[in-house]
Amino acid sequence: MKGIIPGNNVKVFGRAIHALAKIGEDIYIESEEAGLFLQTVNSARSAYACLCLSPHFFAIYEEGSGIKWKVAMKSCMMAFKSLTSLEKNVDKCCLELGTNEDKLIVQLHQKHGMVKTFYIPVIESETLQAVFQKNGSASTLTAQSRLMSDGIQNFQASVEEVTLSVSPDKVTLCNFVDDEPDPTKVVHTALSLEPEEFENYQLNHCAEITFCLKEFRAVLTLSEGSNVPVSISFEDPGRPIIFSVKIEPDLEADFVLATLADHNKGQLSSSGSSSPQRNINKPTSVVVSRPRKSLNNKHAQEVVSKQALHLPLTSTSPSMEHKEMEEYVVPGTPPSKRFCSMFLGLSQPSQFTSMAPDPDEVLAEATDEEES
Amino acid sequence: MTYTMPLHIQDTDDDDSNYILIAKIDNVKNVSQLLKAVHFKEECLNIFGASTVSGITTALHLCYAGYGSPLVLILEEGGVLTDCRIKTQETEEVLDFQFSPENVVNKVIMKSEILREAWSDLDMTSEILQIVMSPDKPYFRLSTFGNAGTIHVDYSKDSDMVESFQCTQTQSNRYKISLLKPSLKALIQSLKISIRTDEQGIICLQYMIKTEDEHVCFVEYYCVPDEEVEVGEYE
């Protein structure tokens, strides 16, 4: 795979990496004829992002015939650390990975005859596949990034989740307060927007969707820099919310965020609403299937990809996850996977399973199979 | 590290006849700025005042009467005199790197700006910084080998940021980053840097610093190459 990104797109690319870095710790990269795909998922598997760079995003693009690999986010960030420097100094950026190489080469050709070369170790050759429907029965709102970033600026830095309430004549964004001992002592911020402020306002039915603010900020990192609108697609609470950004004409990005299930419904049937655990909230039905193959082994790839794994995404805030993990995780187990299943099993009221995938389907194991 | 700057060295007069060194400077900031560049402990520099009020300068009168005597500092700011006496200690022998200009093999003079940019990109988790200087490509290369990957920063000898490029032979030396890091303080303040290496790979980094009063001063930094690295360990 070889790609040369011209100077005017380098900053966009850098911002895309920064947006991904706000979500996950690894980047999954795939080079296909249709372009270069960059994906990431957060450790709780409640947020996923996929970027597609068309071949026209590059000055030169030689596809790597379906080549797939994974690199550490922090390694990637070495090359794209400073957006100001990328914008001011970089004339072009070359990405290169040979078929049997274990290093991704990122080369920044800068002004004043300076060339920076980064050899980024390829951790593993694996892929990430998210299963979500973008154009289902969803409602879609489209707004300028500016409108949204101005909006979320009003929230305190400590706010982790926000609720988007949409009705035919009003959109309200407020901070989600749930696990505070005394909700009356928490700052509540609500902000109303008129439908006229949106470029597109296609509402199927009223909805109240709660999602994490941190990942939403990641979306805006990408869109605001290029001053492009963000499309928000959503269905019912508990179903994923999808933020789509299109930077014309050659970069498209989808950010899929888990949402909390309808907490009002949950409270009615939950016996212990004062429980410190957030057991009134139900994980979403977003499913990430994740075939893995051993390095450079076509045969193994086919075999393993049939065993696609379904990892339901959980709908908690990061701090919540850690609390849960401290209580239940056996030391030495991979935290995120362990957490997925533990959390589902322990805190999900069984009456809601109809809206979410069966927790028994959670197959968090078997991803480390090595083919010979 | 050594530094040189113009101080007014006075001939001893009647009042100061006991001193073997007397130096006066109108703006003490010129001194404190350079002391910072040679990695002086910041708290020791508070003696020169932290005031940044424009238009007010502090003058310094520095005297030393010889072995065993305190270093006398008289600071004057807006008619207020501060008299300080700092106890002096036994000196440790200053290490002589025996770096002589005749033995210089490679020499590059460049604008500090472009080197600062490289420093911010290099991976500080790397134990060593490798410097390649060569009459041929890659001419001048800085490399780090950290946990997150390997980084090379190359400069062309024809860059508009490179003022002088006199490399006679290809040299690749590694220096401990922990040893080079203190010289960053000088790099940050400097306008230009001259990088020289001798036959043994000892590096001399000379930073050109302009003080507030437009005086040109030089801070020199010497470092020996790291011997413990096996050949072939790094790419």
UniProtKB/TrEMBL annotation, chain A:
Residues 358-372 have a biased composition (Acidic residues). InterPro entries: DNA_clamp_sf, Rad9, Rad9/Ddc1. SUPFAM superfamilies: DNA clamp (SSF55979). Residues 276-287 have a biased composition (Polar residues). Gene3D superfamilies: 3.70.10.10. Residues 266-298, 351-372 are annotated as: Disordered. Transmembrane segments: none annotated. Pfam families: Rad9. Belongs to the rad9 family. This is Cell cycle checkpoint control protein RAD9A-like isoform X1. The lineage of its organism: Eukaryota, Metazoa, Ecdysozoa, Arthropoda, Chelicerata.
From TrEMBL, chain B:
Its main location: nucleus. Belongs to the rad1 family. Keywords: DNA damage, DNA repair, Nucleus. It comes from Limulus polyphemus (Atlantic horseshoe crab). Transmembrane segments: none annotated. This is Cell cycle checkpoint protein RAD1-like. It comes from the Eukaryota. PANTHER family: CELL CYCLE CHECKPOINT PROTEIN RAD1 (PTHR10870:SF0). The keyword Nucleus applies. It is found in: Nucleus. CDD domains: PCNA.
